[in-house]
């Protein structure tokens, strides 16, 4: 393997490690802590845990700094091009998906990052959830690809 | 009920932001976890290796952070996380998170950190939607049912 191909993989490993460390230090790997944030009724009896807002706020500010810092670059350091999300529009599928995700997140206290990360702490307890999550994502991805493939070039709207 | 831990939450958030920022600056990729595992199927390109490596590193990082956290921050209580759901509910919630993040094109990290940081309207709508729905869900489960 050349440096050209191994360096991005090493970077991915380092970033994954850092992400997991951050999640655990912020205790976002504990579903009870996430649900304690989502339980806004607790604001009124003074027991609300606002920690998650600090995690997201801090992460967001650092990311804004990175976009500013790297914004003038034509390409990333170790790859040929920045890969941006293809969609920029707001549609029903976005709102429907985010609604379903919100119900699942509220029921479990787990979003995708912590769900994978917590496998390092209590694999038996969380394996079933993660298997269902991956199956749901992949089945939906395959269904969306089939739909878009079938309708490609047709006169039906993209969504 | 858990204790408010602003210091460790902020430092943890900074580390998550550093991870997402470096993945973007070095590899040009968005650190949205649902997008990273979602991109494995259907398989489109030869980029499965970095996805699997990133995902495999997450639990390792969680082990390190769980060990390190309480040594630095006295506010961290510690203990092993529990899901505490009946298997059928765990499967249902997992499916909802998997299907929902795929349809919605992102989760708390992809929309919540990477998308919001570049002021994406799509991400703002997604984040407001899943936050409000998750809060409503917890309210119903804890205070209505």
Listing every helix as H and every strand as E from the N terminus to the C terminus, the arrangement of chain B reads: HHHHHH
* Amino-to-carboxy terminus distance of chain A: 41 Å
Instruction: Supply the helix-strand structural class of chain B.
Output: mainly alpha
Shape of chain B: globular
- Amount of beta strand of chain A: under 5%
Average predicted local confidence, pLDDT of chain B: 96
Helix content of chain B: over 70%
Morphology call of chain A: globular
Task: Estimate the helix proportion of chain A, in percent.
Answer: 55-70%
DSSP summary: helix tally of chain A: 6
Element order, helices and strands of chain A? HHHHHH
How many structural domains does the protein architecture of chain A include?
1
Descriptive account of the structure:
The complex is a heterodimer of chains A (159) and B (145). Chain A is mainly α. Chain A has helices spanning 3-25, 31-38, 51-70, 92-108, 112-117, 123-151. The longest helix of chain A is centred in the C-terminal third of the chain and has 29 residues, at 123-151. Chain A is globular and about 55 Å long. Chain B has six helices and no strands. The longest helix of chain B is centred in the middle third of the chain and has 25 residues, at 48-72. The interface between A and B is large, with 118 and 116 residues.
């Amino acid at each position: 393997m050349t440096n050209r191909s191994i360096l991005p993989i090493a970077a991915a490993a380092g970033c994954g490690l850092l992400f997991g460390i951050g999640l655990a230090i912020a205790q976002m790997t504990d579903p009870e802590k996430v649900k304690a944030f989502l339980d806004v009724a607790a604001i009124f009896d003074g027991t609300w845990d606002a920690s998650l807002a600090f995690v997201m706020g801090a992460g967001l500010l650092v990311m804004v700094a990175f976009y500013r810092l790297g914004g003038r670059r034509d390409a990333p350091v170790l790859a040929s091009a920045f890969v941006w999300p293809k969609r920029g529009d707001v549609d029903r599928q976005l709102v429907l998906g985010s609604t379903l995700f919100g119900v699942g997140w509220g029921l479990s206290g787990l979003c995708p990052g912590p769900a994978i990360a917590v496998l390092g702490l209590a694999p038996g307890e969380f394996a079933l959830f993660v298997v269902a999550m991956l199956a749901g994502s992949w089945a939906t991805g395959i269904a969306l690809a089939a739909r878009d493939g079938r309708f490609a070039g047709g006169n039906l709207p993209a969504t | 009920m858990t204790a408010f831990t602003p210091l460790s939450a902020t430092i943890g958030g900074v580390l998550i932001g550093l991870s997402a920022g470096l993945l973007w600056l070095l590899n040009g990729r968005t650190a949205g976890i649902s997008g990273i595992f979602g991109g494995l199927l259907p398989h489109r390109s030869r980029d499965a290796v970095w996805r699997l490596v990133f995902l495999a590193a997450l639990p390792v990082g969680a082990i390190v952070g769980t060990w390190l956290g309480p040594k630095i921050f006295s506010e961290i209580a510690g203990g092993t996380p529990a899901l505490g759901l009946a298997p059928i509910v765990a499967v249902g919630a997992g499916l909802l998170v998997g299907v929902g993040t795929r349809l919605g094109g992102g989760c708390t990290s992809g929309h919540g950190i990477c998308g919001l940081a570049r002021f994406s309207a799509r991400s703002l709508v997604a984040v407001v939607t899943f936050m409000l729905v998750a809060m409503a869900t917890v309210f119903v489960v804890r205070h209505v049912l």
